[in-house]
Structure formats: C-alpha cells, structure tokens
C-alpha cells in the first residue's frame, strides 16, 4: 500500500509539473531571453549593487530601466523608420511605373565589351516598364505577403524582447538564489558533476553572447565605414541601426539595402554599386566568419561542434536557438566524453 501511495504522489507531481510547463509555454522564449541578458550583464549588476550598498532591488530596477532605454525604445523607433522606408519604396515603384527609369549613367556605356549591351537593356526595360510591371504584378502580392509575414515576425520579436526586459528584473533581483536552486536540482540529478556542467553551460552562453555582440559591433562599424564612403546622410544613425539589426538573423540588409536604393534614386549609381557589394560581402559576410570564431574562442569544444550548434540551433529554434544549439551540443559532447572515459577506466570482465 505505501508503494501505491508513493506512485500516486509521483504521478501527481509529474502532472503538476506538466501543467506548470503548459502554463509557462507561451513565455519560455521570453524567460530564456531574460535569463541570457541577465547572465551576460551580471558583472554590471554586481558593480551597481556594491555602489548602492547591497540594495539589490534598486540596482535591478535601475539596470532594467537602462536596458529599456537602450534596447526597447530604439527598437520601437526603428519600427517606425522601417515603415517609412517601405512607404518610400512604394513611392519609388510608382514613380518608375509612371515616369520610367532615369537615363542610363554615362559610366555604364564606358564598360568594355558589355557597356553598349547593358545600355540597350536599360533602355528596353525603360520603354517596356509598364508592361514589365504588369507581368510581375501577380508576384507582387506574394512578395507583399512575404514582407507582411516578416514584419509580423519582427513585431512579435520586439514584443517578446519587451517582455523579457520585464523578466530580467526578477533574474537580477533573485539571481543568486535561482543559481543555488538550479545547482541543488542538478546535484540531485547528476551528482558531483553538477557544478562542472553548470559552469559548462554558463561558459558556452557567455561565449555565444560575446560572439553575437562582437559580431554586431563589427557589422555596425563596417556599415558606418561604408555609409561614410558612399556619402549616405545620417551615417552614424544608420551604423547604430545596423548594430541593432545585426542582433536578428538577416537584419543588416534592412539597413544597407534602403541606403543603396536611395543612392540609385539620387543618381549615384557608382556609389550604389559600391554599397551593394560592400553590404553583401563585407557587412553581411562577416557574420559567417566572425561569429563562429568568437563563440569557439576560449573554449575546449571543436569548432565543428560550435558551427553545428549555431546554424542547427537557428534552423530548429529560431534566433533563440543561437544560444540553445551550442549549449545543447556542448553538454551532449561533454556527457559523451565523460561516459567514454568512465567506460575505458572500468576493469575488464574476467
């Protein structure tokens, strides 16, 4: 009978745990974002707590308010500016449909071998502009739906980020107690290796955060250089926008593509070509090289494990998978190493 009572208690506890996870499911991603942000900026929290003489709640409130000013408000401003860019692009397409393309630039005809042919193609497109737009009109609706879906995803991401900034306050305030609670749970599950795996997860997340922030800073700086060379107005603001957009997948093109279109509209075709090439191969291309390097730097994981974790996590979980993927593979890889070492130290059977 006591065994039956114990089994019933275990079933009830599992059911309660499942119900709790079901209730928290809509907020899991925001909770993860809050935990990652709090962990990455924990040195600031400790410094601010010391300056405020141990008043953790006040320090958590001030630091959370700082993140709202630095992250949430610029993203809202960015959303309004993206709407303006979309409106300008719509006006550009309508003007092309009515007035046609501007005259072909003089340097285009001067290109060896292909210059005259490109000018002829330019004139053909200009003359057949209305017919061309009519032929692609069925695809414009699909493109609009795709852009609408991407805009909805960006809007959902901004809302999720705003919610995570609410959660980060509680992670700041109760961080040490939560860390101790997690350590006790891991000790019950895996014993003496709990602290090692907790440090492994913490180190992996820290390297991923450094890789994401470092890559975003590099892309923002490269974008600023490109905008200054091309003569785009507001280069510093666009560089900061590129830095913020670099934190989301395929974000930087949302900054340099409108700038390239503006150069074309102003007749600066040479600079538009330069900025398009700079954006494609330098600004956006550095993400594929610098981020995996920074994430793998300082750790003992093979680079292939890191690359699989980064790109596989992005595909499986979205942007939050950038942190989940490498962490899961790091823990799994370490578990396999521990298991293989323990197996090799066992005495052979007689």
From TrEMBL:
The highest taxon in the source lineage is Bacteria
Q: Which InterPro entries match?
A: AI-2E-like
The alphabetized UniProt keywords are: Cell membrane, Lipoprotein, Membrane, Transmembrane, Transmembrane helix, Transport
What span is annotated as the signal peptide, if there is one?
none
Query: Transmembrane segments in this chain: where?
Result: 60-80, 154-172, 221-249, 269-290, 302-324
The reply on keyword Membrane is: yes
Q: Where does the UniProt annotation locate this protein?
A: Cell membrane
Chief place of localization: membrane
Q: Which GO terms describe its cellular component?
A: plasma membrane
Q: Does the keyword Transmembrane helix apply?
A: yes
Any Pfam family from its record, for instance, is AI-2E_transport
Please give, as recorded in its UniProt entry, the membrane topology of this protein: Multi-pass membrane protein
Task: Give the family from UniProt.
Answer: Belongs to the autoinducer-2 exporter (AI-2E) (TC 2.A.86) family.
Q: Which PANTHER family match?
A: TRANSMEMBRANE PROTEIN, TRANSPORT PROTEIN YDIK-RELATED
Query: Which protein, by its recorded name, is this?
Result: Lipoprotein
UniProt source species? Pseudomonas cremoricolorata
